């Protein structure tokens, strides 16, 4: 009998290793949809493991809808289990390590009418004043360029943020429970790497922030979607998912969610924090847009309700304060923080100190508060323009109370032609985000995300007219 190739005393159970290995090969397309997989007996002999081990791996693949059983004749590949051909790299050495980033692929498309970018129009930032803060930082810290930050982040900034969140939301926080990361994307990635092992269950909103799907998929997680609506979540369903799957975490973006703009109401926040504690499921709260509201301010973050350490709070400051600085904060309890620090120290030696110091002086300035006020007004006007242009179309959307995006449902006829619509738009220098890449199930084909934050008012109007005209030519 051959020696088992999977033996790894520190790793998962043997059948789980066989599962991972088979799943990876299915995903790479080594066996096609509906193709019969090798028999339990032959694989057991090939791997040098007991037949029961292979059988259990197949059972798990079946349970996770990666294979199906036909007429007791064996296991067959379930359609949809393989990665699309573009995801499989030509070079076999690279292919083992590269994973897709669907949104960044869309962002790489150069276009005049960028409705795909949930970014702030740089003209809306007080650019003229930035240089003042940069100069002030060099005067105050002449050696700033000659020094690394600590991995956890600049102590002065962490202390200032602790004070800010305690004052604003009554967070109970010490500066050691604050980590500065290079944007919230890095924070999601660190959290996934530290907390999620292959086959762990992870709840995601449906739809959700597209890169989160890619990150948790890369981690090998089993994704469980739960709908987000203008009224928040269905808590009965979330509780049922927690009971049934014992998920490791629930990644959520509950305030002016990207892509929908929906906000989870305060009553649900308290209840969900209690559920998280009951089922020992961590809540990863990604808070990227809390200050961009057009009416009343949104409810306090989940973190404010958490007394048992089940919420990890990520607050990005890049989206509307200073995208070029890429600063975000993670707040969590020491038990998790110590692992995040280890992971961060393998990524870099801390977020650039210069960026942290500039951010510190800029964010806590009076000008910043005035800037936020103007920003809300400017973005609300842009949202209004986009909605005005959409009025005549009959498409559906819920007007969001904040954030950067409209989540729009096109009539059924467009869903089959989404790829063609995207391609024609590119030819006309227009981009948008197709709903399917925001859906953990990769469906939602008749939805799309359009951002009103990046283009100026004139471009917004012109771009929308061109987009709607193109759509009507293709589908009406
Ligand atoms: C919900 C959400 N999370 C994270 C990010 C990434 O933000 P950052 O620039 O801080 O990495 C974005 C950016 O669009 C976002 O919308």
TrEMBL record:
<dbReference type="InterPro" id="IPR000524">
    <property type="entry name" value="Tscrpt_reg_HTH_GntR"/>
</dbReference>
<dbReference type="InterPro" id="IPR015421">
    <property type="entry name" value="PyrdxlP-dep_Trfase_major"/>
</dbReference>
<keyword id="KW-0032">Aminotransferase</keyword>
<keyword id="KW-0804">Transcription</keyword>
<dbReference type="InterPro" id="IPR051446">
    <property type="entry name" value="HTH_trans_reg/aminotransferase"/>
</dbReference>
<dbReference type="Pfam" id="PF00155">
    <property type="entry name" value="Aminotran_1_2"/>
</dbReference>
<dbReference type="InterPro" id="IPR004839">
    <property type="entry name" value="Aminotransferase_I/II_large"/>
</dbReference>
<dbReference type="Pfam" id="PF00392">
    <property type="entry name" value="GntR"/>
</dbReference>
<keyword id="KW-0663">Pyridoxal phosphate</keyword>
<dbReference type="InterPro" id="IPR015422">
    <property type="entry name" value="PyrdxlP-dep_Trfase_small"/>
</dbReference>
<feature type="domain" description="HTH gntR-type">
    <location>
        <begin position="12"/>
        <end position="80"/>
    </location>
</feature>
<protein>
    <submittedName>
        <fullName>GntR family transcriptional regulator</fullName>
    </submittedName>
</protein>
<dbReference type="InterPro" id="IPR036388">
    <property type="entry name" value="WH-like_DNA-bd_sf"/>
</dbReference>
<keyword id="KW-0808">Transferase</keyword>
<dbReference type="InterPro" id="IPR015424">
    <property type="entry name" value="PyrdxlP-dep_Trfase"/>
</dbReference>
<keyword id="KW-0238">DNA-binding</keyword>
<dbReference type="InterPro" id="IPR036390">
    <property type="entry name" value="WH_DNA-bd_sf"/>
</dbReference>
<comment type="similarity">
    <text>In the C-terminal section; belongs to the class-I pyridoxal-phosphate-dependent aminotransferase family.</text>
</comment>
<keyword id="KW-0805">Transcription regulation</keyword>
């Amino acid at each position: 009998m051959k020696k088992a190739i999977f033996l790894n005393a520190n790793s998962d159970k043997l059948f789980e290793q066989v599962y991972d290995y088979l799943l990876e090969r299915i995903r790479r397309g080594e066996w096609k949809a509906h193709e019969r997989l090798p028999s339990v007996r032959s694989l057991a002999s090939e791997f040098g493991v007991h037949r029961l081990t292979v059988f259990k791996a197949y059972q798990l693949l079946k349970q996770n809808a990666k294979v199906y059983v036909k007429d007791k004749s064996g296991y067959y590949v379930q359609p949809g289990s393989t990665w699309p051909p573009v995801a499989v790299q030509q070079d076999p050495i690279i292919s083992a390590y590269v994973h897709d980033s669907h949104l960044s692929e869309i962002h790489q498309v150069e276009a005049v009418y960028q409705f795909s970018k949930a970014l702030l129009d740089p003209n809306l930032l007080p650019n003229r004043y930035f240089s003042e803060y940069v100069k002030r930082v060099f005067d105050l810290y002449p050696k700033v360029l000659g020094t690394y930050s600590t991995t956890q982040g600049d102590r002065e900034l962490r202390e200032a943020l602790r004070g800010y969140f305690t004052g604003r939301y009554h967070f109970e926080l010490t500066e050691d429970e604050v980590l500065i990361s290079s944007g919230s994307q890095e924070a999601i990635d660190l959290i996934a790497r530290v907390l999620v092992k292959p086959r762990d269950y992870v709840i995601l909103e449906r739809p959700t922030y597209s890169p989160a799907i890619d990150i948790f998929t890369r981690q090998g997680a089993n994704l469980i979607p739960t709908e987000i609506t203008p009224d928040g979540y269905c808590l009965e369903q979330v509780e049922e998912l927690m009971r049934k799957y014992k998920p490791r975490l629930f990644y959520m973006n509950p305030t002016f969610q990207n892509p929908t703009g929906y906000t989870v109401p305060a009553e649900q926040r308290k209840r969900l924090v209690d559920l998280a504690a009951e089922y020992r499921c961590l809540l990863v709260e990604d808070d990227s847009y809390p200050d961009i509201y057009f009416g009343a301010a949104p409810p306090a973050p989940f973190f404010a309700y958490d007394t048992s350490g089940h919420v990890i709070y990520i607050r990005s400051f890049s989206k509307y304060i200073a995208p070029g600085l890429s600063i975000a904060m993670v707040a969590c309890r020491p038990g998790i923080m110590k692992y995040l620090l280890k992971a961060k120290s393998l990524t870099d030696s801390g977020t650039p100190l210069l960026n942290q110091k500039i951010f510190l002086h800029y964010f806590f300035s009076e000008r910043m508060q005035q800037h936020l006020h103007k920003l809300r007004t400017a973005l609300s006007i842009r949202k209004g323009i986009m909605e005005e242009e959409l009025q005549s179309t009959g498409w559906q959307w819920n007007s969001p109370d904040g954030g950067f995006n409209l989540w729009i449902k096109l009539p059924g006829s467009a869903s089959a032609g989404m790829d063609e619509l995207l391609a024609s738009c590119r030819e006309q220098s227009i981009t948008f985000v197709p709903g399917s890449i925001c859906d953990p199930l990769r469906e939602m084909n008749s939805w799309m995300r359009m951002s009103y934050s990046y283009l100026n008012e004139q471009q917004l109007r012109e771009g929308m007219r061109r987009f709607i005209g193109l759509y009507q030519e293709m589908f009406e």
